[in-house]
Automatic annotation (TrEMBL):
Cited PANTHER family: PROTEIN PREY, MITOCHONDRIAL (PTHR33505:SF4), ZGC:162634 (PTHR33505)
Family: Belongs to the UPF0434 family.
Pfam (any one): Trm112p
Coiled-coil features, chain-numbered ranges: none
Organism field: Geodermatophilus obscurus (strain ATCC 25078 / DSM 43160 / JCM 3152 / CCUG 61914 / KCC A-0152 / KCTC 9177 / NBRC 13315 / NRRL B-3577 / G-20)
Designated name of the protein: UPF0434 protein Gobs_4297
Cellular component GO terms, alphabetical: cytosol
HAMAP family: UPF0434 (MF_01187)
Organism lineage string: Bacteria, Bacillati, Actinomycetota, Actinomycetes, Geodermatophilales
Alphabetized InterPro entries for the sequence: Trm112-like
Amino acid sequence: MTTSSPTDPAGPLGLDPALLAILACPDTHHSPLVVDEAASELVCSTCDRAFPVRDGIPVLLLDEARRRGTGAA
């Protein structure tokens, strides 16, 4: 029998869906973040920075983010 408590992470990358709904890029534009499960990252839809998720914890530091380089200059 499986039970889930309200504190169990149930969303992608082990993150709570309610948390994912409010996370935004820490840069000045504050765009919502999109999950990239394959890379274990949260991606900003505006600046294309990718923020790592380590052990279920999003690391939203600009110094830790990487530019994904989608070909845009």
